[in-house]
Amino acid sequence: MVTDASEWTRQLRRADGYATGPYVLSELRRVIVAGQLRPGATLPVDEIGAFFEVSRIPVREALKTLIGEGLVRHQPRGGYTVTVLSGPELHELYLVRGALEAAAIEAATAAATADDDERAHEIHQQLTAAIDADDVHRYQNLSRAFHETLLAPCGMPRLLHMLGLVADLTEPSQAMSLLDATQRAELQTDHALMLDAFLRRDGVHLSAAARRHHGRLTAYIDEARNGQGDISVP
């Protein structure tokens, strides 16, 4: 995980040609949501502008948009930083993610196709490989992809959009890195049960498995935090 802006050239991608404001925004959002910049990391306007070869204006506009999305915070004398969530804030956001999933999961199961099955199975295999390799960052990203794949057939685009916004807020904290290997393996067992119910088109059992999974995850995060306060991953 990158901790300071001097290493950004390894993470950000320059545009082919002129970097537009929307491109600067999308790149900053990408590296923040992917957890490639730790919560609390400084976002220096001048250095970002120099990297993209643009003025301060599109950089500031991008950062203002990210403030509106909850991914960036600004202090008058402290500049722009990646948002640091308190433990209760992260807990709340995972509760919201669980509630939104619960609202869509049975409909998604009923509408799923063989293509959805194949995609879910493929991502589950990749999750298992990430567990075996102890690749926590990859497991974090694939876990989100797995849940999104199970929900994709639900036919509720607005709900999925809201879920994506909430997930974007939790991802920079890289919650899986707060857990130990045994806890991540137990979450992967939950994923296996969820996949089995999905493939059998058993929405009731899938809902129950997902509810247990979210309860387990939030409990593990609370335990790992153990009163340490804000979630900033070094």
From TrEMBL:
Gene3D superfamilies: GntR ligand-binding domain-like (1.20.120.530), Winged helix-like DNA-binding domain superfamily/Winged helix DNA-binding domain (1.10.10.10). It comes from the Bacteria. InterPro entries: GntR_C, TF_FadR/GntR_C, Tscrpt_reg_HTH_GntR, WH-like_DNA-bd_sf, WH_DNA-bd_sf. Pfam families: FCD, GntR. One of its GO terms (molecular function) is DNA-binding transcription factor activity. Residues 18-85 form the HTH gntR-type domain. The keyword DNA-binding applies. The keyword Transcription regulation applies. This is GntR family transcriptional regulator. It comes from Flexivirga endophytica.
